[in-house]
Amino acid sequence: MTGRTHAALRVLAVDDVPAALDDLCGMLREAPEVAEVAAAGDTVAALKRLQSEEFDAVFLDIAMPGLDGLEFASLLKKLARPPAIVFVTAYDQHAVAAFGIGAVDYLLKPVRAERLADALARVSRIVSTEKAGKTPQRQPAPDALAALPVESGGRTRYVRRQDVRYVEAHGDYVRLHTHSGVHLVRMPISRLEEYWANAGFVRTHRGFLVALSAVRELRSDSVGGLLAHTDLGDVPVSRRHARHLRERLLRAAQRGELRPEGMAP
């Protein structure tokens, strides 16, 4: 990688379907940001290449035999210098899990040239930032998580972010509290906080996020702690987060972004 500019990316493409792999490699080779493209027909072959070579990014499918794309990406994140990860798949239901493990982007097949260009631009920015010795900000595609797919009984339903009042951490999962019920999604709360911060969600506690627009009032509990009251229950507020929450609520109220009391969801 020495001597290459941030725009000269070295990319590894991984897909077990030869035609799909050829198409992806062809598109990547035509991109001005890409200097070199290597191909692997499965995750085992990809892992062997990554053990002996260094890549700026890995573009990989999810549904593959043996070690699937999500499991493979989790392994890559443990590398000393992990490559940026971009998923290329025919299925949209894995987006939450993909972003949950730090994917830079999530492209749906057939891949459109403009979406590939957007993903490569993201990778280029991250690589450039890393080479400058800074911590990169890996964000998903714009508003990628405005609705979260929730798996239940072999069916997928979508929970809109605007319907979520608060979020509760549950190990490697989060519980989304909505009027239609509590929905379990596999994603660390820290990752969801990163994605929803610009959509009005604020950390109130190590294990909770709350939608500013859902907060009716702040109240004290029986032992002097602070609670953010919503129409679906009280959310604990730690001392560490109390001041920031008050400031955000004040700004939201000044801009008229809080729900009027009693307003229907």
Automatic annotation (TrEMBL):
Q: Which Gene3D superfamilies does the record associate with it?
A: 3.40.50.2300, LytTr DNA-binding domain
Q: Name one GO molecular function term.
A: transcription cis-regulatory region binding
Query: Which PROSITE patterns does the protein's record reference?
Result: HTH_LYTTR, RESPONSE_REGULATORY
Which residues does the UniProt record annotate as the domain HTH LytTR-type? 148-251
Give GO terms for biological process.
regulation of DNA-templated transcription
Residue ranges occupied by any Response regulatory domain in the UniProt entry: 10-124
UniProt xrefs under SMART domains: LytTR (SM00850), REC (SM00448)
Gene Ontology cellular-component terms listed: cytosol; protein-DNA complex
What keywords sit in the KW lines? Answer: DNA-binding, Phosphoprotein
Identify the Pfam families for this entry. Answer: LytTR (PF04397), Response_reg (PF00072)
Sequence positions bearing 4-aspartylphosphate: D61
Stated name of the protein: LytR family transcriptional regulator
UniProt organism field: Saccharomonospora viridis
